[in-house]
Design brief:
The protein has helices spanning 13-42, 45-71, 84-101, 121-137, 170-175, 191-201, 228-237; strands at residues 4-5, 80-83, 104-110, 116-119, 143-151, 156-162, 205-211, 215-225. With 238 residues, the chain is an alpha+beta fold. It binds adenosine-5'-diphosphate and magnesium ion. Magnesium ion binds at residues 130, 133-134, 191.
């Protein structure tokens, strides 16, 4: 059960092109939505029922578009020194209410209070949200999601997102990260594509380990930036 590196070249062509198109489709869609809302106010019951279906389909298109737009090169990316522990804490709290609904507990295993990397916090949040959402969706009967963070002797910051979900078969693992690849009826297949793009831009490495019926673990590795606390400790030890 070895870990598998996910190749980032999978995301280039289709994803980037579609992102450009997404921008063009969004404006007319907003206008369609607005005029349909007006029609609904004057509609009879039967028409209202049909419009309900139309609105839910529009929502679905909007979801795909918003994910495609995240895939497009974002306008304002600011790379700063960030404490990844804080970011992970924030995201796990954010998704905890959602997890509880599915009988899922999100556990964090942080051995340090500060682990610094260089990155764009909003983009990294996007990555962590996508991974945790997938973990939640993989555990229909509940369970535990473990988020682990530590650093190694080569000054790498390593993160782990572990679930106890359905796991993946080989064919799924091979396609992981391809734009629009999904095994879910309501999936977009863009979540991991987004993760790969953002992590590649951060020079980070992502690997996956999965066993059907057992669960899945994603490993992410960043170059660490030393914290002032750890630097001080090292100076004192000299
Ligand atoms: P989506 O969630 O919309 O299907 P993603 O790109 O996020 O798209 O994931 C693609 C596919 O990878 C999923 O449909 C699922 O088959 C598989 N997958 C991703 N994460 C997990 C996980 N934690 N456990 C099991 N399968 C997963
Ligand atoms: Mg997903």
């Amino acid at each position: 059960n070895e870990t598998l590196a996910i190749e980032s070249q999978k995301l280039s062509v289709a994803g980037q092109l579609a992102a450009g198109i997404a921008h063009e489709v969004r404006n007319p869609l907003t206008s369609i939505n607005g005029f349909l809302q007006l029609l609904r106010d004057e509609a009879d019951e039967k028409t209202k029922e049909y419009l309900g279906i139309v609105f839910s389909e529009i929502k679905r298109i909007e979801l795909v578009l918003s994910e495609l737009l995240i895939l497009a090169k974002p306008q304002s990316v600011t790379y700063k020194r960030i404490n990844i522990i804080e970011t992970l804490d924030h995201v796990s709290k954010l998704l905890n209410t959602n997890a509880i609904l599915y009988n899922i507990e999100i556990q964090t295993e942080f051995h340090e209070r500060e682990l610094y990397i260089r990155g764009d916090e909003n983009q990294l949040k996007q990555v962590f949200i996508n991974l945790i959402k997938n973990a939640i969706e993989a555990m229909p009967h509940g369970g535990t999601i473990t988020i682990h963070a530590d650093f190694n002797s080569h000054n790498k910051v390593q993160l782990m997102f572990k679930d106890e979900g359905v796991g993946m078969k080989k064919e799924t693992l091979d396609k992981l990260g391809e734009p629009f690849f999904t095994t879910k009826t309501k999936g977009t297949g863009l979540g991991l594509t987004i993760c790969l793009r953002i992590l590649r831009d951060h020079g980070a490495d992502i690997r996956v380990q999965s066993e059907q019926g057992e669960g899945t673990t994603f490993h992410i590795m960043f170059d660490g930036v030393q914290s002032s606390e750890r630097k001080k400790r090292e100076v004192l030890q000299r």
